[in-house]
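Table S2 (text version). Query chain:
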Amino acid sequence: MNHLRGVPALLGRTLLVLAGAFLLRAITDAGTVPRNAGVTMGLVYAGIWVFLANRDGAGNRRLSAAFHGVSTSIIGYPLLYEATIRLGVLSPPAAGALLLALTAVALGVAWYRSLHLLGWIVSIGATLTGLALLVSTHAAEIFTAALLLVGLATAWLAYSRHWHGIRWPVAGLVDVAFLQVVFLAASKEGPTSPYGHIKPTVILVLALLLFVAYAATFTIRTLVRARNINPFEVIQTAAVLLVGYGGSIHVARATGIGVGTLGTIGLLLGLVSYAVAFTAVDRRQGRGPNFFFYTSLGLVLLLSGSRLVAADTVFATELGLLGLATAVLGGRFNRISLRSHGVVYTFAAAAVSGLWAATAHAFIAPPATVGGRLTAPALVVLALSILSYAALVITQRGRDSGWPSRIPRFLVAIVGLGGIGALVISLVAPPVMDIAGGSPPATLATVRTFVLCAVCLVTAAAAHWEALVELTWLVYPLLVLCGVKILLEDLPHGQPATLFLAFAACGTALLLAPHLLKQARAARSRGPTKP
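Corresponding structure-token output:
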């Protein structure tokens, strides 16, 4: 408690300092000195207390230095706001420059003298003042740039002085400010008054700079300083990826400016992220948090960048090729991360191409609409997914066959098997319904049952090959699906002849599939056969 005994005296001193500031204000309001001179005197007066905070910090009088910092913030930042808004002495560019100058000096003293509390006071004061000036002057470009610099300064204070708490609120406020400005710049009616002078191109560049600046900061720490990524960096990277890079894309699409350029930047940064992960990070630090951070960042950037540079008809193919490439590389170099990313690319390609929709349509759509639903992009993605699965099987032959390493192969196989089933139904069902006549719903239901049972038997037969054993994970789910389907579709719509075929197919699958699995297990338990 001894260190608090001087607080009343410090409070009294601070009140006297504020009294001096109000005296300057009164002199200026009375016209005794010109407004320009009054504002200059006020800023110099605020700067005096930064100098005294530095002196007290040198003498290890930290609490006194903190109170001097409070004096600087209470005097300097409100004076900047008032001189800009009420007095009209400062233009927005001048106010932004002075805001940064005052903040830089004060944070420099805080850093040099290791005055944690002064760092908090100045950082929060500067951020709130910048936000207030942005809203009041509508000079979005100037004050978002100023806020970005303040945010980066607090991030580096955390690295150099371990003042981790300051960066959280400042970064949050900076992100919110950028988010608001991005939406104003991308307004479909054009930036509405009083923000009508906003230049979307400048906001686009600033938003992109928000992402690049923070990403570069985190890269320096994790690579140059070889530190593990921390929660703030993960959360802020996600935020600036959304607000910064995503915001620049939003502005570009709304204005038609620079969409392709942003896509190219995203692709390049994504490739760089992958390269950093698999070269610098993996070799020096191993496959820890930093490795997964950079590979995940590369995944997001490649997905978003590909969408911007590729036409709608090409995007699905591009994603499918990325899935194939990551499957080949992940299998060749035994990287579970790349194989997992291959699953993401393949799933995204199936969604964009309409392969998922076509698969669902083939198995649940009414008879009149079945057939011809697999478009050219969907067929290309189907072929690429089959190639991806084949690449994973071939490149992983003889390596660890534990179930976790097989999950990517299993997921890619789902895309391929579902697409093959949909293709068979779309090709076979229409002519069969024409030939059979009678009830199209009953005939279609039987065709679907046959396809499901056939896929079930194929996956069961795969148990005889160790390299394909993950396909057997589908056997019992497919048997259950066949039973549910007969109850929900075949019985309500079927006729005696079609029900005979459906029950026969399902019964055959129920008998043969478990037998094939049991046979394969027995063969593996006996070990390889001797020549």
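Notes on Table S2: The chain has 19 helices and no strands. The mean pLDDT is 90.
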